[in-house]
Amino acid sequence: MKVELRDPNTIMKLSRLGSFHQSKLSFLRSFLREFKDWDYKRDLFNLDQNGYGEAVYSFKKKNRVYSLVCFANEIKDEERSDRVIATKWDAAFTLHDGIPSSEDIDRLKNQVPKQEVGRLSFKELTLSRANKSVRVFNHVVDSLSEGNQPDLDLLSKVGYLYRTTAVYGSGKFGLADRFRIKNREEINGPFRLEMMLVYLVRQFTFDQVNHVAHHKNPEKAVKLEGQICKNLGIGNSTGLGMAPFIVNHPTLLNNWILSRETALKKIREIKTVKKEESELFIDCVKKSIINITTWNTDSEYQQIKIKSLLKDVEKFINYIENDFNFKIEYPFNEIYLWLEQNTCEECIEYIVSIMMEPYNDITEPLVANMSSDEDKYFNIPTNRTTNELKDIIIARYPNILEN
């Protein structure tokens, strides 16, 4: 049986795109798979008792090394701001190509904390800054220093110790231009360097909070438990940069969505599903209920969407357990058709993401298709007429004309 790719006029609507959930194709998950066998080290950790100073972390495989250089600074509470116009942050970071020399660290110490006002070199690949969640950071320090683990309810409501206010790359502020590194196989997937920076920043936040707690009370202090660390990430105070990015990189967006749609098509075309595949799928759906119930938001709109999703996922589980048999031919196609008829957009895309879980053989080759050599697509055809442009808009973007 041949299944057609879903209609772009449906899938590319904002409501549907906004219902997509993380999957095996997501940038962070594909990054973690690709870098799990790299050597990780903390090469320098020169912080004072209050957690201020510099640190260097590295990822290494064969002859390739990337190093995160961190600068933690003391700032006043009134100086802490997540707005773009801020000039001071609790910490600033850059991802350095290779192993930084002492001269590099001195140079970066003078430039990285300045962020946009500073100047980086082609040796630096990405740049970022972050602020503490002061309430959570101080609570964790106080708890650990007294020999206790922090309040899990508080941590679950926030989810991080630090939140970034920008992650820059591709030539901004003197950073290395994309052409210098785009052919490196290990970072060929989208946002590999940005993911590497944020992943290492996350580790720095754990090390810093343990360090400060220890110096506050060396006799009683304990370290933050590994399981708690696993449930903490890095916050993000704004996603403003993604709006112009998507407008300016349409082939990338196309490739991201096309890879996901291709995965769904291939899964729907599986004639016979193995027992272990169906069991993994069902198990992931059931366990994900816990995940949905932990989402916190102040947005009434999102609260309604979450309740609707939870209701429909529970409805889907009842259908799978009582009215469905995976022994039929093309079971995932039947599941998808049922979802379209019986659940909301959010639930459809949620289950589509989980369908990918048993199928590494389908998803992993598609990760390589999620980058784009954009130079191929942006030679402006100066011979085209305005009437031709109008015809293209009518054919491909009819929704624009409706508004």
Describe this structure in words.
This protein is an alpha+beta fold and 403 residues long. The chain folds into 2 domains: 8-20 and 248-367, no CATH class; 37-238, no CATH class. It contains 17 helices and 7 strands. The protein has helices at residues 8-11, 14-17, 27-35, 102-111, 134-145, 152-158, 192-216, 226-230, 242-248, 250-268, 275-293, 300-322, 331-342, 345-355, 360-367, 386-396, 398-402, and strands at residues 39-47, 53-61, 64-72, 91-97, 124-132, 160-169, 233-236. Strands 1-2-3-4-5-6-7 form a 7-stranded mixed beta sheet, sandwiched between helices. A hairpin with a 5-residue loop joins β1 (39-47) and β2 (53-61). α13 (331-342) runs antiparallel to α14. The longest helix is centred in the middle third of the chain and has 25 residues, at 192-216. The protein starts with 7 loop residues before the first helix and ends with a helix. 29% of the residues are buried. The model has no long low-confidence stretch (mean pLDDT 93).
Count of individual domains: 2
- The shape, in one word, is globular
User: Which parts are unreliable, with pLDDT below 50 for 5 consecutive residues or more?
Assistant: none
- If you average the pLDDT, what whole number results? 93
Estimated share of beta-strand residues: 5-15%
Q: Report the helical percentage.
A: 40-55%
List the total number of helices: 17
Care to count the β-strands? Answer: 7
Could you say which structural class the secondary elements and strand pairing correspond to?
A: alpha+beta
Q: Terminal Cα separation, in Å?
A: 38 Å
| Strand neighbour order, sheet with most strands | 1-2-3-4-5-6-7
